[in-house]
Amino acid sequence: MKIYKLLTFISLLLIIVSCGSNSNQKKNFFSITTNAKKGNISIDESLKLSVENKKNHSIDSVIYKLNGKTISEKTNLKQHKLGKHPIEAIVYFNGGETQTATSSITILNNKSPNIYKFKIINEYPHDITSYTQGLEFYNGKLYESTGQYKESKLRQVNYKTGEIEKNINLADAYFAEGITILNDKIYLLTWKAKTGFVYNVDTFKKESSFSYGKSVEGWGLTHNDTHIYKSDGSENIWLLNPETLIEESNIQVYTNKGKITDINEMEWINGKIYTNRYQRNGVAIINPKNGAVEGVIDFTPLKNKVTQHDKLDVLNGIAYNPETKTIFVTGKRWDKLFEVEIIK
Questions:
Q1: Strands 132-138 and 114-125, bridge-based pairing
Q2: pLDDT averaged over the chain?
Q3: Residue 202 forms part of a structural domain
Q4: Domain's final residue, options 71, 86, 108
Q5: Cα separations in angstroms, 283 against 156, 210, 296, 328, 337
Q6: 151 with 126, same domain?
Q7: Which helix (H) or strand (E) holds 5?
Q8: Which of 9, 162, 195, 272 makes the best surface tag, with the fewest CB within 10 Å?
């Protein structure tokens, strides 16, 4: 009897294993074939898709999807965003069966970024103790956020004299990051607390706070008429609804070679996003529609024009002054604020 029960148990086990094996095998009936070389394809190419039918099933039809949206087996990519995106092939076969194959592609820009230089128009004093994170003009005034735990501040600054006209300190638990100002409200990020704050621009009174969504951390902010743009240190820039501050979508920052990470302080200038990259001496110019890096400004010489000291840190802080139509840049613990003209 014991031998019979043992044989029965072994038989059931083999059936279960066999079913599991068939289930796993079924998942591999089809796979997606593309014309993307090593998974990469340029935005000026057409994506061509097909299905590899490993078991020679009778395929009735196939529906292809890119980022969840139905596309044809040959799709022009010019209107798509750059970056890594999921693709699906929903295969209908054998008169009633369905299976979904998945893969991904990385859409790259079709040309390398333009290289820009700069000309210094003016130099202004800047607080050498400021670990500059966010920098923005609003109604003729310059606003700045500074980082580090137990040192984080929000300020209104007279940019011509360097005088601090208004200042509040953040709680010691918060490391302040970027700011942007919209409709008389200052939006300020914190680094790792996954919390942002909203202040009245006139009184600096805190009015509310908001939580992050899928974004990893808080780095930089900017805005246009419809959205607030948020960086989190990765290649992603998130689009926030300015009323709810919910992350509604994102773009991925890419060149013709690959992704660009460490996206930091940002500024909206003439329809483009200008952004510092952490630990870099340049500013990237990004197309906000698809994430393409269209230009790079080399600010390497500026760091040598400020007072050299032990705590001197990287270039960070970019602001556009609508009144002068010029760009202002500085760095962390720099004693100068530079007004510059960009030259191609």
A1: unpaired
A2: 92
A3: yes
A4: 108
A5: 24, 28, 6, 12, 16
A6: yes
A7: helix 2-26
A8: 9
Name the strand (E) or helix (H) holding 8: helix 2-26
292 and 149 within one domain: yes
- Alpha-carbon distance of 9 to 119, in angstroms, equals 82
Could you give the CA distance from residue 170 to residue 193 in angstroms, rounded to a whole number?
13
Strands ordered across the beta sheet of 30-34: 30-34, 46-53, 74-76
Do 175 and 197 lie in a common domain? yes
Q: pLDDT-derived band of residue 216, with 50, 70 and 90 as boundaries? A: confident
Instruction: Return the structure tokens found at 119.
Output: 């000309």
Return the structure tokens found at 111: 């040309």
At 27 the pLDDT is: 63
> Does residue 171 carry a pLDDT above 80?
yes
Q: Angle at CA 224, nearest 5°, toward 332 and 317?
A: 5
Domain extent for 64:
30-108
Last residue of a domain, one of 60, 89, 108: 108
Average pLDDT over residues 5-27: 47
Are 313 and 295 found together in one domain? Answer: yes
Q: What is the 3-state secondary structure (H, E, C) of 50-72?
A: EEEECCCCCEEEEEEEECCEEEC
Decide: 91 and 51 in contact? Cβ < 8 Å.
Answer: yes
* pTM across the whole model: 0.88
Cβ(282)–Cβ(299) under 8 Å? Answer: yes
DSSP 89-130: EEEEETTTEEEEEEEEEEEE-SSPPEEEEEEEEEEEE--TT-
